[in-house]
Design a protein that fits this description.
By secondary structure, the protein is α/β, with parallel strands linked by helices. It contains 19 helices and 14 strands. About 40% of the residues lie in helices and about 10% in strands. β2 (about 20-25), α1 (about 45-55) and β3 (about 60) form a beta-alpha-beta unit.
């Protein structure tokens, strides 16, 4: 059988065609090697795509790319439409003539962690210089492109830029603590700010233009190499965001614009007291009146730069856990019905296709299963949740079906090596027995988990780079329920040189997962 085949995705009722088999790696952009302390859209990302392609990988999965608020979490962005300026590549600014090489010279940021405070200070200084050079003139093509970008994205960009300028002017405070006229968006107060802070507002717009421009270039290169970008969208947005500030009617807020209820999940296998996310929950009745226009704009913007999107916390579209504002944990709350099939029917009519993968982890009920079945969304299977001794566990490899994406673990899991290190002896024995192996040393586990995922029936198999590198718990990306210390792991240049690409390629080819794919959607 020739495993290297040409497969076309269509806007049919199922995202992955029958018989489609592919694989990829999960690595957030911030985790790429970089002399600037944080991964970006520049040369290292291009090299990463080339390495994926050369190893027969069809997918690069990343985390949300919005500008994070407190805690540096990509799942609580200051805007669900905007892009994180920290992802701007200084090298590409040099190529554009907006920076000189000497502008970027400094000692490299050491270590395997993103030091966000240092990175923010350094990159802000670089962007200040590039913006000043742009304003001086001499870049007519870029200026023309920026005007077109601002016009095309005005529906969210105007509010975001104004929000950022006001937030900076009020010392970074949560917007409900701003003067009342700005909290309630008094037209006179906003007009006065626009007239008097026009340069600062344009600076924010320029950053977004550069972000989108560099990301577009990256996606085009990925498409040429046959690598598809697998994005991620948080179902909820940050309470302190341009989205909530500009659209308070779309969320359940009190008269002071604070959330009446916040989002999260009750106790599950991630956290014993549940997860208290703190995001405001939606006023779905109000959204429905507009045919979900805000959501459709949100998804359409993200699909400009991604081929497929993971819908984070999919079950929230069926029902969401509403926790009373001020509750200390997520243990108390109520399941409140979401928009269900009506929402996805409208999306299909507006977007023409539904290139989404459902994150269906957590408490899954019959109504959620029905919604998944009605729209044939691919689901997730996570191997680290499989080996608890329950023979009926839905994540066991023999329960994996074609219309799934199989993971060794996700960004919310420990690395496979770290997971095994913490596994009870009883569950270790069950793991060995199920796989039919002799007792495994923890140094062997990540490779075994990758092999199991790649052998599965799932249409797509994904492993975090940490598993490919056989790293332990020190390389974990996120611990759900813990506010500090997350999202900072990054791969060093030396580690990149030790990735077992040849072994991955051989496994991918032998298990029928090397595929040339074209993605055809009517999303525009």
């Amino acid at each position: 059988m020739d495993h290297l085949t040409e497969v076309a995705f269509s806007d049919s009722s199922c995202l992955f065609p029958a018989g489609y088999r592919a694989s990829g790696i999960l690595l957030h952009i911030t985790s790429l090697p970089s002399p600037y302390g944080i991964g970006d859209f520049g040369p290292e990302a291009i090299r990463w795509i080339d390495a994926l392609a050369d190893a027969g990988q069809s997918w690069w999965q990343i985390l949300p790319i919005g500008p994070p608020s407190s805690g540096n979490s990509p799942y609580t962005p200051l805007s669900t439409f905007a892009c994180n300026p920290l992802l701007i590549s200084p090298d590409l600014l040099v190529e554009d003539g907006l920076l000189r090489e000497r502008d970027c010279s400094r000692e490299s940021f050491p270590g395997e962690r993103v030091e966000f405070g240092d990175v923010i200070a350094y990159k802000t200084e670089l962007l200040d210089r590039a913006w000043a050079r742009f304003r001086e003139g001499g870049f007519p093509e870029l200026a023309s492109e920026m005007r077109a970008f601002c016009q095309a994205n005005a529906r969210w960009l105007e509010d975001f830029a104004l929000f950022q300028v006001l937030k900076s002017g009020f010392g970074g405070a949560y917007y409900v603590h701003w003067p009342r006229e700005f909290v309630t968006r008094d037209p006179g107060a906003l007009t006065h700010t626009i007239e008097n802070r026009r340069d600062a507002i344009n600076r924010v717009k320029w950053e977004q233009f550069i972000c989108f421009r560099q990301l577009s270039r990256l996606r085009q290169h990925a498409a040429r190499r046959g690598v598809r970008l697998f994005g991620d969208i948080p179902i909820f947005v940050s309470a302190d965001s341009a989205d909530v500030w500009a659209n308070p009617n779309l969320f359940l807020l009190d008269q002071d614009r604070r959330p009446r209820f916040v989002a999260g999940v009750p106790p599950d296998y991630f956290a014993a007291t549940g997860q208290l996310w703190g995001n405001p929950v939606y006023n779905w009745a109000e959204l429905k009146k507009t045919a979900y226009a805000w959501w459709i704009d949100r998804l359409r913007t993200l699909l400009m730069h991604h081929d497929v999107i993971r819908l984070d916390h999919f079950r929230g579209f069926s029902a969401a856990w509403h926790i009373p504002a001020g509750a200390p944990t997520a243990e108390t709350g109520d399941w409140v019905e979401g928009p269900g099939a009506d929402f996805f029917t409208e999306l299909q009519q507006q977007l023409g296709s539904l290139p989404f993968v459902a994150e269906d982890l957590g408490t899954i009920t019959d109504d959620v299963r029905q919604l998944l079945a009605d729209f044939r969304f691919p689901r997730m299977s996570v191997l680290q949740f499989a080996f608890d001794g329950d023979q009926q566990n839905a994540f066991l490899p023999h329960n994996t079906v074609e219309n799934m994406v199989a993971y060794t673990g996700t960004h919310d899991n420990d690395t496979s090596r770290g997971w095994y290190h913490e596994l009870s002896e009883q569950n270790r024995e069950y793991f060995w027995k199920y796989l039919g192996t002799d007792p495994l040393h923890e140094s062997e586990v990540a490779d075994v988990m990758i092999d199991v995922a790649w052998r599965s029936a799932a249409a797509v198999a994904i492993a975090p780079l940490q598993d490919l590198l056989n790293l332990g718990g020190e390389a974990r990306m996120n611990v759900p329920g813990i506010a500090d210390g997350n999202w900072a792991w990054r791969c060093t240049a030396e580690q990149m040189h030790h990735i077992p690409w040849q072994r991955l390629h051989e496994r991918t080819l032998s298990l029928g997962r090397e595929v040339r794919s074209r993605l055809i959607t009517s999303v525009g």
